[in-house]
Write a structure and sequence with these properties.
It is built from 21 helices and 24 strands. With 678 residues, the chain is of the alpha+beta class.
């Protein structure tokens, strides 16, 4: 049973009548739900904070704190505002139901209730809650996957840019300067320096190449770092001394977030602290394949067969949570740079890098002719490499894609800057999407690196579809104009409308019908009727506000003012009567509809931050509701205000004076039909 309870859900019953609690608890427990009970609103609020339920069944008439106040407090709390609340009450007036929905209820069950109706509504709301949670989790997962893929692509792009810059450097010192500059600009580390082993490999001396991001620091710090640099230039470090010596001796990267933890015999780190430098990172440059520990434990002399070519040290003004990833990335860059001093290993190093990638690398000249192909992923080749080398891009690719690539090559070579493009090619019976980075190699050639981004594009497409589903759900709840305004400025929206026409309709006989047919049949019939009403609302350009049980509310003239909105409501009412007659013949059930209409001023808008609902308030709304409740089944009762708007185009019968709750005596009319044109 425990597994079943977890699957069904946990329900909190709130009612001051013990018999009601026992009955509901018995019904729900038998259906596999875990049930908790509270005999007052205060107990319920305390219980919810202790353990959050999946759903709350809430009575209205309770001492000290009624159900409306309990629901309002639940919706005002960040912790409990998303818990669905179903009101279950003996109050059956329309305004009672309207108030229940206004304070945040999602459904309303009238006592005495049918067991199957309670179960059906509970299961329906729990299903909606689970679907909403699943949609949110799926959307979050897609966003996470896209972010991870984009980050991976950014890192690959940095590696390729760095490899190109280092490979085009004229000498070792220039290559070191390129590395220092690129790393500092990528990581926002402020200062970078290089240390070079002496000829006899006994000590490290300061390289003349260094880099400082002067534009990102205070001018006074620029002068302080310049003095720090002058002091460093005259120093020599032996294996194990300070950051350069430690990295050199261990051949391992080192991250230092507290300078006090490291021996500072030459007082250089103390001077760094005076420059507001707080953290440092050191990385060795070692020829690929020669990163290894010293042969003898405790020996600081390095083998001349596998020297450390240089030690790079970077300083930052502060440490951050992203430093670990940046340090790993810079370590990879440093490992690649070892090939700069060993030209014979350059091609082997680059091939090893490309072999670890899934990108396709092509070298082309400004005419688009292919000079070389390094197909790390042969599955993504449009044509075999043998058919591509020596041929121009228009000879091997579709015209549109060839034009795009050639234009990008010309731009990259002419500006000596990297250009990025995206395109797709039909390969293996499906469209493969590529993001291609085109970087200049010389004034006549460029290297093109194409990455397969099909999965990322698909993920973005899936995310877009999920977002469209979410937006469609919102459009099913709110008018399109309100949705657009909420996107621009989330929060309460309220507008005054000088004249709108409101229609309330109630299906007479539906309550009796619910006692004779199953809850499922009842809900299906109500859904069929209301779906037809929705079609009529769309047809007449009106705005459906809500349904309350078997009642339907629609308005004309908002959220966008509409001419002849009263006529549209009148046509809607007549069509609703006709639709009910058709349903009555179809299902052989005695169904009638009672309709009330009023015209007047209202305030309409959206309130709250979650579970939005577009609603309207004002005396005109209350009067329209009274026109329905005081009407006669099969009749359309309208106020004098509406009659004056329609009397020249529709047929009416004067009902006369009637007593309207809260308004006294009013003269009303029956809308009979639309007048035939003369």
């Amino acid at each position: 049973m425990k597994a079943q309870e977890r699957q069904k859900g946990n329900i909190l019953l709130v009612d001051d009548t013990p018999d009601n609690l026992r009955l509901l608890s018995s019904i729900l427990t038998e259906r596999g739900y875990a049930v908790r009970k509270a005999r007052s609103g205060q107990i319920a609020l305390t219980s919810v904070k202790t353990a959050l339920p999946d759903l709350i069944l809430l009575d209205i008439n309770m001492p000290e704190m009624d159900g409306y106040e309990v629901c309002s407090k639940l919706k005002a709390s960040e912790q409990t505002r998303d818990v669905p609340v179903i009101f279950i009450s003996a109050l059956s007036e329309v305004m009672d139901k309207i108030k229940a929905f206004a304070v945040g209820g999602i459904d309303y069950i009238t006592k005495p209730f049918q067991t199957e109706e309670v179960i059906a509504r509970v299961e329906n709301q729990l299903t909606i809650a689970r679907q909403r949670l699943s949609l949110q989790e799926r959307t979050a997962q897609l966003e996470k996957e896209i972010k991870a893929r984009q980050q991976a692509e950014e890192e690959i792009r940095l590696l390729l840019t760095m490899a190109q810059a280092i490979s085009t450097a004229t000498d070792f010192d220039t290559a070191l300067e390129v590395i220092l500059q690129q790393v500092c600009q990528t990581t926002d580390w402020i200062y970078g320096e290089a240390w070079i082993p002496t000829t006899d490999t006994s000590a490290l001396i300061c390289s003349p190449r260094w880099y400082c991001q002067r534009e990102k620091i205070d001018p006074t710090l620029v002068d302080a770092i310049a003095r720090f640099r002058e002091y460093s230039e005259v120093l020599t470090f032996y294996p194990g001394e300070e950051i350069p010596g430690k990295v050199w001796s261990t051949r391992q990267s080192a991250c230092v977030n507290d300078f006090n933890e490291m021996e500072d015999a030459l007082l250089r780190l103390e001077l760094a602290t005076q420059c507001d430098l707080k953290a440092a990172f050191g990385v060795p440059i070692v020829p690929m394949g020669n990163i290894q520990q010293p042969e003898e434990q405790g020996s600081y002399l390095l083998s001349s067969q596998s020297p450390v070519l240089a030690v790079l040290v970077f300083f930052a003004l502060s440490s951050s949570s992203d430093d670990k990833r940046l340090c790993e990335l810079v370590s990879v860059v440093a490992a690649q740079s070892g090939t700069v001093l060993q030209q014979k290993k350059v091609q082997a190093e680059m091939k090893a890098l490309f072999a670890a990638m899934t990108d396709t690398v092509v070298v082309r000249d400004v005419s688009g002719r292919c000079l070389n192909v390094i197909p790390t992923n042969t599955m993504n080749l449009y044509k075999p490499a043998t058919e591509t080398i020596g041929r121009k891009v228009h000879e091997t690719l579709p015209e549109a894609e060839a034009d795009l690539i050639l234009q990008a090559i010309l731009e990259a070579v002419s500006t000596q800057k990297t250009v990025e493009i995206e395109y797709s090619l039909p390969i293996g019976g499906k469209d493969i999407c590529f993001a291609e980075t085109i970087s200049p190699l010389s004034s006549e050639t460029a290297i093109l690196v194409a990455r397969d981004i099909t999965e990322r594009k698909q993920a973005q497409s899936d995310l877009q579809k999920e977002q469209e589903k979410s937006e469609q759900l919102l459009l099913n709840i709110l008018p399109e104009a309100m949705v657009e305004r909420l996107k621009e400025n989330p929060g309460a929206i309220a507008e005054h409308f000088h004249e709108v026409t409101i229609l309330f309709a109630d299906i007479v006989g539906f309550t009796l019908l619910s006692a004779r047919i199953s809850p499922t049949e009842l809900v299906n019939l109500l859904n069929e009727i209301f779906s037809k009403f929705d079609e009529l609302t769309e047809k007449h350009g009106l705005e459906k506000i809500k349904t309350i049980g078997d009642a339907y509310m629609v308005v004309g003239g908002l959220p966008v003012p509409k001419e002849n909105s009263a006529e549209a409501i009148a046509d809607m009412a007549l069509d609703m009567q006709a639709a009910i007659d058709q349903f009555q013949m179809k299902c052989s059930e005695k169904l009638q509809i009672r309709i009330g209409i009023n015209t007047g001023a209202v305030v309409a808008g959206v309130i709250g931050m979650k579970k939005f609902i577009y609603d309207l308030w004002g005396d005109a709304v209350n009067v329209a509701s009274r026109m329905e409740s005081s009407g006669i089944p099969g009749k359309i009762q309208v106020t004098s205000a509406t009659y004056e708007k329609l009397k020249n185009r529709y047929k009416f019968e004067k009902r006369g004076k009637i007593s309207v709750k809260g308004r006294g005596e009013m003269i009303t009319y029956w809308l009979v039909a639309k007048s035939l044109p003369k």
